[in-house]
Design goal:
Blueprint: E1 8-11, E2 18-22, E3 26-32, E4 39-46, E5 51-56, E6 64-68, E7 73-76, E8 92-93, E9 101-106, E10 113-118, E11 126-132, H1 143-149, E12 160-162, E13 165-167, E14 178-182, E15 186-191, E16 198-203, E17 207-212, E18 221-224, E19 229-233, E20 240-245, E21 248-253, E22 264-267, E23 274-279, E24 286-291, E25 296-303, E26 316-323, E27 339-344, E28 351-356, E29 365-369, E30 375-378, E31 384-388, E32 391-395, H2 407-416, H3 427-436, H4 443-461, H5 473-484, E33 489-492, E34 502-505, H6 507-515, H7 526-538, H8 542-551, H9 555-568, H10 574-584, H11 593-600, H12 607-617, H13 627-630, H14 637-647, H15 650-667, H16 673-676, H17 682-695, H18 698-707, H19 733-751, H20 757-772, H21 776-787, H22 827-832, H23 880-887
Antiparallel strand pairs: 1-2, 2-3, 3-4, 5-6, 6-7, 7-8, 9-10, 10-11, 11-14, 12-13, 15-16, 16-17, 17-18, 19-20, 20-21, 21-22, 23-24, 24-25, 25-26, 27-28, 28-29, 30-31, 31-32, 33-34
Length: 890
Amino acid sequence: MLSAYGRDVRWMPKNGDKFLVVSPDCLQLFATDAESGRPTVIAQHQIGPFLRCFDIHPIFEYLVACGYASGRVVLTSPCRDASEPATLAGREFSRSHSRQCQGLAWNPQQQYWLAGGFEKYNRTDYAVLIYDVWSRPASVMTAATVDAAWPDRHGLHKLSWVEGTTTGPQSVAARPLYELAQNETAYSLAWFTQQHRTLVAGLSHRYVRLFDLRDTSKYQQSLTTKSVYGLSVDPFNEHRFCCYVENTLEVYDLRLRNNNKPVFSVNTPNSAPIVKAQWDPVRHNVLTCLTKDSTIIQQYHLIQPANAAAENAEYTHMDRHVGVSFNAKKSHVQGRRTVASFEWHPFVENRLVAVSTFDDPDHLVVDTTVCEHVSVDWSPTGGLAASLGHNMMAFTDPKWPASEVDLSVVMHRRATNNYGQVAGANAFTSCVTLLEKDDAADDSLKWLWRWMERLSNLSRNDDWHYECRFPGVCSMMRARLSQNGTRLEHKQLPDQGLPSTRVYIAMERDRILRACGWGSLTGDRAEIDVVIDKLIEKGTSHPRAAAIALFCLRLKKAIEILTKASDADDEKHTHLRLVAMSLAGYQGTAAMWPELCAKLLPTLTDPYLRAMFVFLSCRKDADTQFEPLLQMSGLALQDRIAFASVHLADHPLIEFLDQTAAAVVQDGDLCGLLLTGIKPTEDCIRLLQNYVDRTGDVQTAALVLIHGGCMAPGSTAPAMLTVAEHPLTPSSTPALRNTSRSASSARLAEEGTGDATPGLNMVEAYLSLLNSWRMWHQRAVLESLVQGRTWTPGAQSADSTSSATTPTHHRIPSQVFLACTFCGKNVIIGRKVARPGQVGPDRARTNACCSCRKPLPRCALCRRHMGTHLPPESGKHLSTLQLIEIGSVR
């Protein structure tokens, strides 16, 4: 509809340098000069008075439909075009009685359909009429005019002509194809781009209704609102449309059940009435409106929430003022002339054409480019970056080191590669494989998933009776003390080079060694040899392999490792040969060997080589003599813990573990989970929180909590499930908070260790991040892991039966239901409830709702009512209703 000033402007759909200015009495076609940039009139066409609305054809851009106050709809053209059908210009569609035409809209795909909105005349009239502009009355059709009226091009098929009649889609007389909205007044209407048979119309100052031309007997959806003007469908999201009334601009989302509430609503400054509202056809989530007697255009950048489809979702926005100058000679000076209308360019970003309220040709229209905001930011290393639209400019000092990779990009890439998404026994193996190829992953992150993989295997192959599947070393040792008191077994392992050496042996200590990546010291120590051989195969871990062999009292093995490594490259491993020769001359702590070690230590840079000399120098009966080695920060945490579990008694070991745990929790070191374990305790949650605060990697923290079972309702172990057996339907974040918070908080209350809120916040933050990335499948898999199976302690012991080797799981209730169109209640629940005393099958009506007795919806393919039993074909004996229920949980 024309603006309050009776003037409007539209870009040509295909030609990017031409636009049409519509005045109350004429159509003016402008073209922007490439050299001067000034628009000039290239064609002009006089039209009749009382023009109310118009629309340009999406294919034949010089074909314009004009609607008048008398109800006439006339097809006209400001100039003749070779591709335009010659018979269309001048065609007129009118009714028997006069009623004002309020709006026109060409169908974007069915190019011969034109929709018009009209005022109400009487109760039997329809407000929305859809014409077929290619149709002609049968009485005027002749053989000579058929080919001229319907050329065989532009997607139109030939017609079969018979004298006086025609057959085919265009054989309908010049009357509406469809009549909609009886006894209403239409104020605006718009087609959907993809759903080309769907139309939305604003009616009678009360409703915005959705019509589907496949079923014109009733409207498909209705919203109760007074905002019935300026309907415009979002070109990038057809679920949304905008409309306005007076000074209120609103945006609605058709996906919401309670869609009477707009997802975005804003009042214009100074309560000025709105003249026009339009979505930006190039940029996402940009809405623009013009108010009456205004010299600026309001622009709103909508910020979509993560849960945009939720019932209570509300958009936020950032607004800006776009100034328009109509001074042709000084375009950079903002004029004071009122803007009558505007139009964004259909495919050039930030290009705008505006028309003023003055008739002066030099100040009538302006074709300009709106400048974007320039965002400037300093980097911590001194670089400067500025963003302008899609362009980024960065100024860096070459003296400063290159900036690190953005963590958000790293997390997005890992999520795309299904980081932590694989369920079942291969969950941890897939993470290890993925991180081995990731250059941004540090050693602690890679070690974390290898450690979880080892403990997962131990829990299946060992008598695992701990409170969680990933217990910490501290929990293991305290479990031993609670069972055996202070009694401890120790023995001397045979080694010719290290006589009288005492080590401590226990079942829990063997588990600690396996968890640290070492092996059991019981038996022939074959597990230790396997670990050492794997380190040697890497080619870069010879010092660590030799140190582990020495700590396990394999002095001869350590000398062999260093000797072979030194033979591989004389220049690079010269120090290894020197260390091997020194170890070969070891004669105990009473000889001159310690003095020689004291002189050699300052020349060694490798921490493991230094640790070997420290171990041999301070090897005595007292446990405190190993304190210098245990405090060496260059050694990996798991190696220090494994060394302590071999050479320290219970109480000194517990004291060392507690001190080390406090330090790693404070530092947020992922390797500290070896001490704290993965469970909803204060130490574990605080360690992960400090890790997130230090690195920002909320992705890893959330995945550790999920796979560690800290979020599984009612369980104390990870929720392991097969994706094919459980639903992938994402649940809402509040539901996750309600189910998981209660279980985790209850367990923490019983243990008296703290609050699980930080852990829940980390998981919810990552799920919201996946929502913002539109990774619905990845989020659904994680929520299935949270609410899926629960692992039972001891169910996978070695002496368990085969039926107990698989983790027990609980059936997840359906999250998607078939709802009645009228009452909104679940049809499945009502159908499955059995009546008392019922013996035979349910013979109730399957075409009506069990609650309100209204008819159930029909299938789009077979047109049967939902719930109708299918014939027993191809072995299918399930009803449609049962199939829907099965599909809701798969």
